Amino acid sequence: MISLRPGIERNAACYYKASMEEARVGIVGLGNVGSGTLAILDENADQIALKLGFRLKVTAVCSRTVHTRKIPSSLEPVIKTADWREVVAHPDVQIVAELVGGTRVAKEILDAAIAHGKSVVTANKELMAACGAEIWDRAIQAGINLAMEASVCGGIPIHAVLREGISGDRVTALYGILNGTSNYILTEMEKRAEPLTTVLAEAQELGYAEPDPSADIDGFDARSKLALLAALAFGEKITPADIFVEGIRRISPMDFQYARALKHTIRLVGAARQTPDGLILSVRPALIPLDTILAGVQGAYNAVWVKGAYGEDTFYYGRGAGPRPTGVAVVSDLMRVAREIRSGSPQRVSPFAHERLGEYRPVPVAVQSRAYYLRFRVDDRPGIIAKLAGILATKHISLESVLQEPCETKNDLPFVITVEPTTEQSVRDAVAEMSELDFLKEAPLALPMETAL
Hints:
Elements: H1 12-15, E1 23-28, H2 32-43, H3 45-52, E2 56-62, E3 79-81, H4 84-89, E4 95-98, H5 104-115, E5 119-122, H6 125-142, E6 146-147, H7 158-165, E7 171-177, H8 180-192, H9 196-206, H10 214-217, H11 220-234, E8 236-237, E9 244-245, H12 253-261, E10 264-275, E11 278-289, E12 301-308, E13 312-319, H13 323-343, E14 358-359, E15 369-378, H14 384-394, E16 399-403, E17 413-423, H15 424-434, E18 445-449
């Protein structure tokens, strides 16, 4: 019988069978996610045991600084090593949790774990987006389990939703705020009218953004997450490099001012849409209406909006990162894998929600039709609007409105033109021609206006 701490219901006959073993876990990586995972396995051990009917036992931990880290006393004794190979090869480890990040070493860990017949839990979005389907195929051939819930939107069980919760539906579109750092920056810029550089520096001080923030603010982190979600939602093997990506570096407080005048706000949106041409994928800043639920997502939160052919709209919201929210996802995966090991069913449900993924044929984002927001900064002079309108007319683009907030600086005057729905390619051609005009201070900023949300 498993001993329980005081305060936990001891109705053992309801929860346990005699002589059930514990499931033994090796954790590789004790950064934020690894430390959060250990804390949950320590503090929530009894509730986990009540749910499983057996305990999760941390057998080994690995980190380059493992001997300077404090391991919760309830988890001792535990093997401590700086060499991940010792964890993967150890006969007492049944499940390897890979929490190191990056791709090269992480892939070596997963490959070695599979070769040793060990089931794997990973939080590695970049690796799983790049070659997760191939890793799953090898895991199945080896008869072991692979789980990756923590790789996307750590505090939201979005993988489980797409894999099982709404698997009976046919997803037609998916929109997400997938990067908490960029969302924190954009919402703080909107609230305080501060420039991106100022808010980014604060985000770095708070630990939301890395010293090199390019993965977040240039959209690459969200691109990896979208590749995984699109694979689950649409059953296609997505190469992240095939996804159109644009970051938030050019967004300024004035853009939020104009967006609000248009009853919109600006978010970095990961979008996957099934169209007659095929699946269109993008990560980019876009104007979204203020009356939509995504517009209300503030700070370092993530959200995913899924449109189904039968179940229609469903929405998922929560912390996208952080030691404990992501740690919950890791521990939940450990519990699921432990159950599957005990039941002898490693192939219960593919982590990609489909038995086999189809080959994705990239559809260029340029074919989609949207209304667009065009923001200009100009050295003011007569005839500017007429010149810009003339260029738009040659591309068969119709003006919707012209907005200009009061501004005392005539040699750097901002204003906005919105245009009626047109193809992205037409807008790109117009912007390229406009960029040659001598009165522009910089190339026009073009953002789609998402009305399908």
